[in-house]
Amino acid sequence: MIIRDNPSAFRLFFVMQGSVLPRILGKIGAVALLTALVLLVDAEVTLLPHVSMAALSVFGVALSLFLGFRNNAAYERWWEARKLWGGIIADIRSLGQQMAAFSENREDCRRMLHLAVAFAHLHRGHLRGADTRADAARFIDPEEAERIAARLNPADAVLHRMAALVGEMARAGRIDAYARVALSDRLGQLALTQAGCERVRSTPLPFVYSLLVRRTTYLYCFLLPFALIETTGWFAPLFTAVVAYVFFGLQAVTNELEHPFANVQNGLPLDAMCRIIEVSVAEALGETPPPLMQPRNHLLT
Amino acid sequence: MIIRDNPSAFRLFFVMQGSVLPRILGKIGAVALLTALVLLVDAEVTLLPHVSMAALSVFGVALSLFLGFRNNAAYERWWEARKLWGGIIADIRSLGQQMAAFSENREDCRRMLHLAVAFAHLHRGHLRGADTRADAARFIDPEEAERIAARLNPADAVLHRMAALVGEMARAGRIDAYARVALSDRLGQLALTQAGCERVRSTPLPFVYSLLVRRTTYLYCFLLPFALIETTGWFAPLFTAVVAYVFFGLQAVTNELEHPFANVQNGLPLDAMCRIIEVSVAEALGETPPPLMQPRNHLLT
Amino acid sequence: MIIRDNPSAFRLFFVMQGSVLPRILGKIGAVALLTALVLLVDAEVTLLPHVSMAALSVFGVALSLFLGFRNNAAYERWWEARKLWGGIIADIRSLGQQMAAFSENREDCRRMLHLAVAFAHLHRGHLRGADTRADAARFIDPEEAERIAARLNPADAVLHRMAALVGEMARAGRIDAYARVALSDRLGQLALTQAGCERVRSTPLPFVYSLLVRRTTYLYCFLLPFALIETTGWFAPLFTAVVAYVFFGLQAVTNELEHPFANVQNGLPLDAMCRIIEVSVAEALGETPPPLMQPRNHLLT
Amino acid sequence: MIIRDNPSAFRLFFVMQGSVLPRILGKIGAVALLTALVLLVDAEVTLLPHVSMAALSVFGVALSLFLGFRNNAAYERWWEARKLWGGIIADIRSLGQQMAAFSENREDCRRMLHLAVAFAHLHRGHLRGADTRADAARFIDPEEAERIAARLNPADAVLHRMAALVGEMARAGRIDAYARVALSDRLGQLALTQAGCERVRSTPLPFVYSLLVRRTTYLYCFLLPFALIETTGWFAPLFTAVVAYVFFGLQAVTNELEHPFANVQNGLPLDAMCRIIEVSVAEALGETPPPLMQPRNHLLT
Amino acid sequence: MIIRDNPSAFRLFFVMQGSVLPRILGKIGAVALLTALVLLVDAEVTLLPHVSMAALSVFGVALSLFLGFRNNAAYERWWEARKLWGGIIADIRSLGQQMAAFSENREDCRRMLHLAVAFAHLHRGHLRGADTRADAARFIDPEEAERIAARLNPADAVLHRMAALVGEMARAGRIDAYARVALSDRLGQLALTQAGCERVRSTPLPFVYSLLVRRTTYLYCFLLPFALIETTGWFAPLFTAVVAYVFFGLQAVTNELEHPFANVQNGLPLDAMCRIIEVSVAEALGETPPPLMQPRNHLLT
Description:
The structure is a homopentamer. Chain A is an all-alpha fold. The first copy, chain A, has one domain (24-41, 49-285). Chain A is 73% helix and 0% strand. Chain A has helices spanning 9-12, 21-45, 53-102, 106-128, 133-137, 142-149, 154-171, 177-202, 207-228, 235-257, 270-285. At the D-E interface, helix 3, helix 7, helix 8 and helix 9 of D face helix 3, helix 8, helix 10 and helix 11 of E. Chains A, B, C, D, E: It is a multi-pass membrane protein.
């Protein structure tokens, strides 16, 4: 995630970080070139058929609505993903409060909360396709870490381990029956959030939208020059380039926000959020917390 | 569900999988043909009445808004359906955690979780109109499976069976009164999700929208050629074909997403999600999990 | 609710069931006639003032947005109503599961669930303004039915009766204190859903919208002919008729969906949903369930 | 709230009740007059500069979107407010059910539910800035009513009083520990709903929107005549009047719905909802309920 | 937050408070100047290329949609932030009710609720980057205040302290096991709300939107004069100035609402809301409440 103030009007056009411009420059160039070619052929070689701008504008409105819809859907995925991680942070903090309210056994508290941190790291690894075993291993037994990492869904395995610990504490009489229910509910909440994250990661927007919207954008940009022939001179290529920037740009943004857990510039800062969890847990246990992550070159991973 | 990367600009126009193009090619052709005919008659036979493009553009904006609304509604149904199944996965995992926290009886755990897997399979069968009794029978007693399959709503019957098991465990003293409430709450959650899925399946978008939007689309495509007569030459049929592609295409997408449980290319991968549940349950019970399903030819069923 | 496949392109224009066409045919005719008159007067009698199409198109966009907003709001009411009834189905099923988990007394189970069915029937009657006492009386004591029917809100009275039964079971020791809380929570959920349905029924969309949107539609259709004079000949009446169909049609759809509980073609099938509840309860009690309702002539009431 | 059927096409234009027309008639007249003046000056005195209609139409689309956004936000506030009050009705009914399930002491039931009715009345008074102490005093002790009315937030004070009563009942052994938790949860729910209503009342839409949208509407209506000069004759003033009606009308609707608790024609019928609560409580206590409120001259307050 | 009635039509254009006009006046002037320059060069020096207005209008619709999307997202953040704070108010009131229902120990009540007020103040300080330790110190022990303020997340530390107090009360037998669970749930709810606020504060809208929308706005305003050349005379600069006001204005509004906790004119009145909490707590404890905050010069901070 990029954290920076809005650049001034002048610098705005030179900021490349977080911009999708580099990725779509080729397409923009191609559209501008096509326009120049159409103008040239129309003027020098043979009269090309014209499309009335009014006709194209209906098309443009429809395209705007489709892009708008897809963008909305992608942004909502992104924001839902952020909400889900916010929920994980809150649930782990609540777990710490519950342990403080229900248990007097410091070792139980430590084990439970360290398992929760390991859950966060392994969950992040699962979502990003990254290897976070080393991060998790700082909080759980090496052997147990090995066993858990061998599972198809390690984060789920940690939650199961936490549930077993709840059962163990209850059977040993270190917490009462009420606490067992309350802690178990909290774990159920974490399982729900985890499944929510997996849903966002594993279910992209329907592929058919991608086809429909991208094809429509290409067709629009191909037809546009024929509608702009009446506008004379060197302005037409510039104009089509600007339109291509708007439409291809929004499409590229959508593609990036559609996968909120990916480790890209506009993705969610899962590393930083896991660190927030580490801090909360450390403070809850009275240990020295690690420092919060700071954006590097405006970028928080 | 189709799982594949976005095709490159060139290949984009030749990807047929997941595309709605094959289904609407006839309509697109008819619209192009009509346009050619109108042009021909206007040029050779008799002057046809013209519709001003500006007039048609209001119509086009209205149509875009209607299609956009219907598309939004269909997508929300699709995403809600996905959320509901994500909830089923989470609830069954939580059930496993609860059994780990509340019960020491391995056989109870196995019976309860296997019933949950059977629930998922029978629920899937109910939603898809498919016969999933064989899948369910791997997890429950053959006789019981027979009895359950005879019910009008087998998935509901399995939930009821699970509730009876909760009562049985409590009365036999294998779980305490708190666990009985907690497990019963979890089953209530599953019943809610199940009813949500049935709602999405049994209540399509109001039929009247379908009539209104489809009729409007046909009328628009019929009037469009008369507005394009002023655009000379062979471009008009191409243009109407493109517009027909956009409008009929969005309509076909909507029709497919409206039924998220159907076993179609853009439908939800219920088989794969049932497998995820099998894996979670197997890992919770310490059994060897089956492998996760992989997309075949980019397709996950 | 109409349950049928999408008609083919040809049959589409002759399907009248579920269509709003019959209701708005008069308005469409009036608009077409007005247009013909305007054309005639302009051509034969005196030059009428023209409205530029571009000016009217802003008006058209605004109108589309208003109609779109109202349509959205009406559809959301309809879908929320469906969700609420889905919640009632789920809650009554959960109630059955809870009784199975918490009670061993078959008579209690039967009384409780039969009261729930009576609740559903009386609630449906309240929402539809229909007399459903006969349906409810099949599930409760005749005397009690009489007393309940005399209340201003019979469905609420049944819920209260169920709460009293919960208290009775608890005081007689047939369920424990935990079950009392759990069953009471379920009844609270039913009360919430019931109040939600009453909200949708008793609070239509603000009347002022109806005035604003309908007046605007009439004004638009009145001004449209003056903008279409430039389009020659017999096409203008056809075109205004089509536009009137789109705008008046959407308005008629909205009016129907705004009242989702009314017993109309596009209303919710409350009768069929009550039958689903009867089936679920019968299967939960081990009784022979009645058959599910089937659409008659594509219509489910 | 206005409760009436949709007027017929003819009567539609003469219905003034609930209409915003009276309030914006002055603005509409001013716009029409300005248009006539512009036409006159342009024709008789000096050629005025013209604005191309196409240019203005972009402006019109933007304005439609802003008005549409603000309208959406206002309607959602209105509907959320209605949902919150529906929640209050449901919660008070549930409270009655809980008392029936948990308590055998009729006097406790009566005191608790009468406090709830007083809560509804005082809450209504707080939201409307009205004096509802007389209504509340019918349900609580005069002295207590006096003490409560002296608080800054009387409704909150009643909830606190109810919580104290819960504690009293529990300490006296008239309800058990489970009931204490359940009743306390219900009060927590009421507190949440109450805070939600206060939120809607005390936080209007950001003032900056009001400025932006109103200024834009005025500017649009001021520029419109210059774009309509080309449209000859007496039609231009009529046309601008209609456009002004649409834009100022929507704005006036928004202003009214933005404050859903105000005692205006399109506001929520808080009086009638408090009466529904009185009826429910009376029926729950076996007392004779007052009659439901009927709309007077189509108006329910 | 600005609290004032809508100004009259005339005064509307002179209200500067809460307006974004001062901040965008430079940009508006620049656009007007550019337009004048383009007109001058076109008329006196050399014929400049023209852009057809119809072409630009597609661009304008797209821009309106993007700005509309971003505005929607920002407003939803603002309203969600308000909901979260409303939830904090409700939860602290509920906490007071729970203490009244569960505890007879006045000192416990006082300590718990004073900690809650301190939580609200420290949370506000965290969100605003302000030093609120003095406000919090009025409600907690000076030493404890010092220790808490040293934490990375002081608000979280207070919640943890409250959880420890719950544990202490339970272990000392001053509340029973049920109360411990209920109070602990309430704290979990507060932790969730707190994490929600942190989410809104720490996760702005994706930076890429800002780039895309702002660049598009600049490009649009740069191209507009070339489309307006055909509109003669001094009207063009006025017109572009108005369009610039609309587009840059909406952008400035969005920027302000995007950060709902910032201490700006259109930000949320966190100070006033903390005061509401102080009042509720004082009245719950039977202490003399401080006066509610009143807007100063229409401004509530």
